[in-house]
Amino acid sequence: MTDTSPSMTRRTVLWAIATGGALAASTAVVACGTNPSSSGTGTGTTTPSGDPAPGTLVMVIRHGEKPGSASSLPGHDENGNPDDSSLTDIGWNRARELADVFDPGQGPSRPGLASPKAIYAAGANDNGEGARTRETVKPLADRLGIAVNTKFGKGDEESLVKAVSAQPGPTLISWQHGEIPAIAEAFGSVTPTPPQDWPDDRFDMVWTFTATANGWRFAQVPELALPGDKASVIKN
After folding, report:
1. Do residues 116 and 168 lie in contact, with contact meaning Cβ atoms separated by under 8 Å?
2. Mean pLDDT, consecutive 10-residue segments, the chain of 236 residues?
3. 181 SS3 class
4. Which neighbouring-strand residues pair with 192?
5. Which residues pair with 215 in a beta bridge?
6. What is the DSSP string of 25-88?
7. Where are the domains of the chain?
8. Longest Cα–Cα distance in the chain
């Protein structure tokens, strides 16, 4: 990890700004994403019927920045080798910062989020490419000592949701943005209704799904991991 206390301070300030009165609408949506225990750490167990226990928390992020998005930076793997199917420098920076977003070194997790007990990322495509989803969660997975589950890929969203709903603890999913709405749809009864599309220019949002007695509660939590990240939620 390359983060230092100044970066933690910056992130704390950004979050404080985002939760200020000027962004009441955004924070109202964020607030509804906290689970009943208020700590965002649902047990993730299942009921005798096989349904997820109330409080089960699933968090979904888009992979970090890629070539051709927001800048002309090229992609490269973790060793610096050019790779158009990998993250850019900005994307790698986001990946490192997300380790602190989901697993703060000091203090509790941000409201609505929790340190994951399981991490899923989309597997490689048919050409063996598409490493960004896995690269985005690698720093966090390395810190937590968690093996990233890459069993599922694009088109497997229903099976993915079935698997994560049964996880014994908070779960994080890293996915391609075009298919994240399909993940939301696979949860079935979700309130409020999630957006139908994930904008091409947004890499900075967490969608959360918290199990209730009647389905799932949806909320959005801004990552605020990098300068320029938006505090406004996705709407369409």
Report:
1. no
2. 44 48 38 37 49 94 89 91 95 98 90 97 78 97 97 96 95 98 98 98 98 97 98 94
3. helix
4. none
5. 212
6. HHHHHHHTTS-TTSSS-----B-TTSPBPTT-EEEEEE----TTSSS-PPPB-TTS-B-TTS--
7. 5-222
8. 52
Q: In sequence order, what are the residues at sequence separation of 6 or more whose Cβ sits closer than 8 angstroms to the Cβ of residue 64?
A: 87, 88, 90, 91, 92, 93, 94, 95, 98, 132, 135, 136, 203
CATH class in words for 5-222 = alpha beta
Cα dist from 68 to 62, 73, 108, 201, whole Å: 16, 7, 36, 11
Query: What single DSSP character describes residue 109?
Result: P
- Sign of the dihedral through C-alpha 62, 68, 140, 155: positive
pTM value is 0.82
Tokens read off for 53: 């226990």
Helix (H, G, I), strand (E, B) or coil at 13: helix
Q: 70: which 2 tokens?
A: 């927001």
**What angle do helix axes 5-18 and 89-102 make, rounded to 10 degrees?**
80
Radius of gyration of the chain (CA): 17
